[in-house]
Amino acid sequence: MSSTKTRAALRVSARVSGELLLVLVMTAVALWLLGRMWSVVWPLVVGLLLTTLTWPLTRFLRRRGWPPALAASTVTVLFLLVAGGAVALIAVPVASQSGELADGVVEGIQRLREWASGPPLNIGDDQITGAFDSATARVQDSVGSMVTTVVTGVSTVVNGVVTAVLAVFLMFFMLKDGPRFLPWLARQLPGRLATDVPTVAARGWDTLGEFVRSQAYVGLLDAVLIGLGLWIVGVPLVLPLAVLTFVSAFVPIVGALFAGFVAVLIALVSNGLTDALIVLAIIVVVQQLEGNVFQPMIQSRGLGLHAAVVLLAVTLGGSLAGIVGSLLAVPAAALIAVVWNYVREQLVEPGEEPEIQTAPSPVGTPS
Fold first, then answer.
1. C-alpha to C-alpha distance for 204 and 337, rounded to whole angstroms
2. CB atoms < 10 A from the CB of 224, how many?
3. Nearest Cα to 277, choosing from 235, 220, 225?
4. d(CA 254, CA 260)
5. Per-residue pLDDT tens over the stretch 158-192
6. 361 vs 207, more confident
7. At what angle do helices 307-347 and 38-63 cross, to 10 degrees?
8. What single DSSP character describes residue 279?
9. DSSP state at residue 349
10. What radius of gyration, in Å, describes the C-alpha atoms of the chain?
11. Please, what is the angle between helix 193-233 and helix 254-271, to 10°?
């Protein structure tokens, strides 16, 4: 071995390791600052996602001569009406059939007791009563922790409401003044940053739009397939359950589990155990197709990410930050890819063409 080449390789390795360590430290500091400002960042992120969903209609109205404030106000009101209509489609039918569902729950509990009292379990009423008394005693012993849990849950709901309100207001202002942002940002930045940052921001905007639209496509596919299966089986409240499935698709993992649990519960109390198992099988098949086939294909095509990258991003985001991490993992990975592709374009030698070319987005120019 050459001692000169060995020393040179060690020096290069030490320099690269030091630079990587510095990058990791700066990344950790940025993430720490992001966590400290999360109460402001989270409504901003939700507002951006809602804006990407409602911007096409706003752009259409503005191109027809509508003033920006009027177009943004109209789209915001329509969004609130659609959201309220979705809630009504879920709540009103459920409330109208709440009596039947309650009777079904009572009947289901009675059937369960009758089944448990027969072979092979042969559990008597005394044992069931003893188990009930034991459970009641445990609940009484844990009243303090339950109160703490309830208070925490109420705080979470309040924070969610505040986040939703702030996100709607931010969506309105983004719809009204969003096209002025990139020109304003270009005027504030010096030198080359005045070109680089607005270009990357515009491409990131297009990427967020593709993410929201792909989630909507996946949710619609889930709602249609699961709703069709519920209709064939004869489960009541098909339309509310389909709407709930569509809405919950925007919350990865937990949303699908919640919608599936509700559908199986209604099938159990209304149609019996056999139909409930059939509904469970339908939901499992659809969710497996969605998570492993449809969602990676749609998102990888729209976001320019390989299907395996989408799956790994969701897994990593969920392990790091739970539901929020799963929700933001894919757009975050896509935004990182946007920055990386732009940097590669800028580092290409003159006369050479990069492998990946992404045209700048028209969003952000004055309309």
1. 9
2. 14
3. 235
4. 10
5. 677 788 888 889 889 888 888 888 788 788 888 88
6. 207
7. 80
8. H
9. P
10. 27
11. 10
- In order, the DSSP letters of 161-222 are HHHHHHHHHHHHHHHHHGGGHHHHHHHHS-TTHHHHHHHHHHHHHHHHHHHHHHHHHHHHHH
- Name the amino acid, one letter, at 26: M
For 181, residues 6+ apart whose C-beta sits below 8 A from its C-beta are: 364
**Composition of the chain by helix, strand, coil, percent to 5:** 85, 0, 15
What's the rounded Cα separation, in Å, for the pair 70 and 176? 8
Structure tokens given for 50? 């809602």
Distances (CA, A) of 280 to 17, 94, 251: 51, 20, 20
Query: What gap in Å lies between CA 237 and CA 257, rounded to an integer?
Result: 18
Q: In angstroms, what CA-CA distances link 90 with 35, 242, 286, 342?
A: 34, 9, 21, 44
CB-CB contact of 105 with 268 (8 Å): no
Give the C-alpha separation, 269 to 90, whole Å.
18
Q: Is the dihedral of CA 270, 242, 83, 85 positive or negative?
A: negative
Separation CA 75–CA 163 (nearest Å): 19
Lookup result for tokens 């003159």 = 350
Burial class (CB in 10 A: 0-12, 13-18, 19+), 73: middle
Whether the pLDDT of residue 367 is over 50: the answer is no
Q: Could you give the angle at the alpha carbon of 275 between the alpha carbons of 270 and 280, nearest 5°?
A: 110
